[in-house]
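Need Hybrid sensor histidine kinase/response regulator's 3D structure for a figure. Predict it.
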Amino acid sequence: MNLKQFFLLIFCVASYNAVFSQAPEIQFNHVSTSKGLSQSSVIAIQQDKLGQMWFGTRDGLNKYDGNSFTIYRNIAEDKTSISNNDILSILEDKDGFIWVGTYNGLNKYDPKTNTFTNYFHNNKSNSLSNNTIWAIKEMSNGEIWIGTSNGLSIYNKTKDSFTNVFHQIKSSQSISGNHILSILETKDQTIWIGTTSGLSKFSNNKNGYYVFKNYTTLNDNFSPLSIQDLSESRGNKLLIASKNNGVLFFNTTKNKIEKYLPENLQNEVSKDIRQLVFDDKEALWIGTYNGLHILDKKKKLRTLKNQKNNSKSLSKNSIKSILKDKKGSIWIGTYYGGLNIWDDENVNFINFSEAGNTKKLSYNVVSSIENYEKKLFIGTEGKGINIFDTKTNELKYLLPDTNVKSLFVNKSELWIGTFNKGIAIFDIENNTFKNDKETKKFVNY
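Structure prediction for Hybrid sensor histidine kinase/response regulator:
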């Protein structure tokens, strides 16, 4: 390698924030009240057939088309408005109606008329069992199953009426509890109910009496399980988000509930699990009151929490709702932190800049880039060289007061062309210089 060949490799890129392709980093975009969200606690998320997103907050129902919000609130004396502003659950049924559960009443929204039909509990036997609605699911037969604070209500569209199912103390075949937080129909059309008193599997309807098989404890512990969410994996495994026992699953071979996480990870995840969602790569997203965990197919765990100086981190650690949309993006609702959105297609780059938080570039004017095995050498016009280890994600700094004009790797040597300071040759393997033009040590910037 002669000097003529070396200087042919000189190039200069004027003033930009360097961006290098790496394994996807979890970075979130955020939607908050400053962008039109009615309130910053997002309790429920749903996507309709048109691709619009629906968010339930503590102060109103929000429809989001990607650009702007339409907010629905209760209007006194208007019976066609939503019954209550404190939203707990949302569902779009097969007919395109949006069902909304609140702290005071169930609502069916008709997009064609832009009106709500309200349903309340009253003294009639075919009315709603209770006005606080935690879960809404449409079954394959068209029935709408509604989990309330006092019983299960099953809505018949043809009759426009409810059949109510309650826990019976004297019957082991009744539903496990009356406070119902989650409902799921699996791919094989099995219906599971999560209550504050355990898991119930629907068996059949005998002349109007709903029969269940109940699983109320973990490992024969006397303390009943409180189940907050249910999710099914691609392999048809039923996963359970519990209030006090972490992530569980139903072992179909043993016909019992067991712990899902490997022993070495159980203490790394909160015991209070709010939501479970599988993404398109079969990684499990675990929402808790103290951060977000992502468990990949190989059972490797990543933990994400709010980072004060990182605008792309989780907005708040208290997570209430998670949804995977039709595109595969993950939407995360938090308490008082609005929405977090992760889109795999938009996070294939790690950003480096002088103003960065986790990847702080020494200077924004980048003159040259070279690589050697697992290291990237980034030359700047003012503050030396940044060395990024792609294996450990660590940044180190070399020649901090130097205007670097060009870099070239020849075998294990880094040739450094500088402004007014000549050429330095750095031995990458031994971390030393082969001449005495510059300092022989790494410097932390």
